[in-house]
Design goal:
This protein folds into three domains: about 5-40 and about 80-110 and about 255-325, FAD/NAD(P)-binding domain (3-Layer(bba) Sandwich), CATH 3.50.50.60; about 115-255, 3-Layer(bba) Sandwich (FAD/NAD(P)-binding domain); about 335-395, no CATH class. The chain is built from twelve helices and 23 strands. Helices cover about 30% and strands about 25% of the residues. A hairpin with a 2-residue loop joins strand 22 and strand 23. The protein has about 400 residues and is an alpha/beta fold. Mean pLDDT is about 90; it is low at about 380-400. The structure holds flavin-adenine dinucleotide (FAD).
Length: about 400
């Protein structure tokens, strides 16, 4: 591919996660012939909600993380594996770590978030997140090691009882057959505070059936190589607990992946404050999508569902902008929520339907595979064609 020989300045999307790929897909579906370039530092799109099934071997790497080069061929965009280091908003160009410069007509930034290890001293040395394929490989190795050993070890501690912490605890517990106790720690007073009540109840049941102990109203105050200290969030009680641990998994804090450009716009939560069109007023040709964004007036959660809806809207607004038409504001449509709760088990709430157990697990997996960009890639290959596409489409057409 020769970047100097494009027929016009391309539309460039930085970050090939849910937001970036949804943008690319919609742009291509409504194409006016402008080249679309997707830039990502990695070589694979990662369908993060299915990382648990990758851990358990219920799905394979190529199903959960297709290569961008395959998606580019299937969908018809240009893929560049590069890390974007800087954006020059005045000259309308970006620069990558190998000093490639690309001039854009419109730019979409969807660089997502990563585990925040800065929240506690030594955290990076002693903890592992669950946000990318590297983390997956470390945890997979840990599970294999536990299963191949006859010795008992200290507990695994998981920080954060949001969806990632809870889903990870249930899955690991099943995979190590409850041999080692898992401590799930959260500074809040309940697990899954932002989830649907049905899903929370099912998660409480799932945790109760496994070798998982929950510490609510506690936060991890300090961590060392062999022990960590929990402290009660209730200042009055001054309650400390010392825990000798074997592994610390950190799901309790995320931070945006930063570009030089973004530093000007990060707020207290280190997110980019966007207007209703997913933009900053001063820069009409730049759009922001996904987990890096927030809107004070009409808040939305950080989720794949939101990122995809934003990506789709931003692509339509780019086309409107190019055609001189009015842009549309972003409005989040909540299409439901699905949780993985151990091997072969899940809970679903959406479209007035609540369902838990093995059937929910199969529907969740199938509904997610249906949302895979270049869906045919996974549909052709997946052994999970247990439901008709029509039924799943009806139930969970865009739900994540
Ligand atoms: C384990 C797990 C399970 C989850 N389960 C669910 C779920 O069930 N439902 C749900 O709705 N959400 C779920 N989420 C959250 C969801 O995955 C995120 O909200 C979603 O991925 C956000 O999309 P995004 O496009 O903003 O960022 P991402 O999907 O994180 O993509 C960002 C991309 O940008 C790239 N990038 C970053 N910086 C640069 C740079 N400078 N240059 C080039 N490329 C760069 C990264 O490599 C990455 O590919 C889950 C998350 C995790 C970690």
């Amino acid at each position: 591919m020769d970047l100097n020989n494009l027929n016009s300045d391309p539309i460039v999307v930085v970050g090939g996660g849910f937001g970036g790929l949804a943008t690319v897909q919609t742009l291509l579906a409504k194409s006016d012939g402008t080249p679309v370039i997707l830039i990502d530092e990695g070589n694979r799109f990662l369908f993060k909600p299915l990382l648990y099934e990758l851990l358990s071997g219920e799905l394979q790497l190529w199903e959960v993380a297709p290569e961008y080069s395959d998606l580019a061929l299937e969908l018809g965009f240009i893929f560049l594996q590069e890390y974007v280091v800087e954006i020059d908003e005045i000259e309308q160009k970006l620069i990558t770590s190998s000093e490639i410069e690309i001039t854009y007509s419109q730019l979409v930034i969807s660089t997502g978030v990563t585990t925040d290890y800065s929240l506690l001293e030594n955290l990076e040395d002693y903890a592992c997140g669950f946000a990318n394929l590297n983390d997956f490989r470390i945890i997979k190795k840990l599970i294999t090691k536990i299963n191949n050993s006859t010795e008992s070890t200290n507990p695994i501690v998981i920080a954060g009882a949001g969806p990632t912490g809870v889903e990870l605890a249930c899955k690991i517990s099943d995979l190590i057959k409850d041999r080692i106790q898992i401590y799930l720690v959260d500074k809040g007073d309940k697990i899954l505070p932002n989830c649907k009540s049905f899903n929370r109840e099912k998660a409480i049941d799932a945790i109760g059936k496994r070798n998982i102990r929950v510490y609510l109203d506690y936060y991890i105050k300090s961590v060392n190589k062999t022990f960590l200290e929990l402290s009660s969030t209730d200042n009055g009680t001054n309650n400390f607990i010392k825990i000798d641990y074997s592994t610390l998994l950190w799901t309790a804090g995320l931070k945006p992946s930063k570009l030089k450009f973004e530093y000007h716009f990060l707020n207290q939560n280190e997110k980019i404050k966007v207007n209703e069109f997913m933009q900053i007023d001063e820069y009409p040709n730049i759009f922001f999508v996904g987990d890096i964004t927030y809107n004070e007036k009409s808040p939305f959660p950080s989720s794949a569902q939101v990122a995809m809806q934003q990506g789709s809207l931003v692509a339509q607004n780019i086309i409107s902008l190019r055609q001189g038409n009015a842009r549309k504001p972003f409005k989040f449509e909540d299409l439901g929520e699905m949780l993985s709760l151990g091997v072969g088990n899940a809970s679903i709430t959406g479209y007035g339907i609540t369902l838990a157990g093995p059937l929910a697990f199969k529907i969740r997996r199938f509904a997610y595979l249906m949302r895979m960009p270049g869906f045919l890639l996974s549909f052709k290959s997946s052994g999970s064609c247990l439901f008709s596409k029509k039924i799943i489409n009806h139930l969970f057409s865009q739900s994540l």
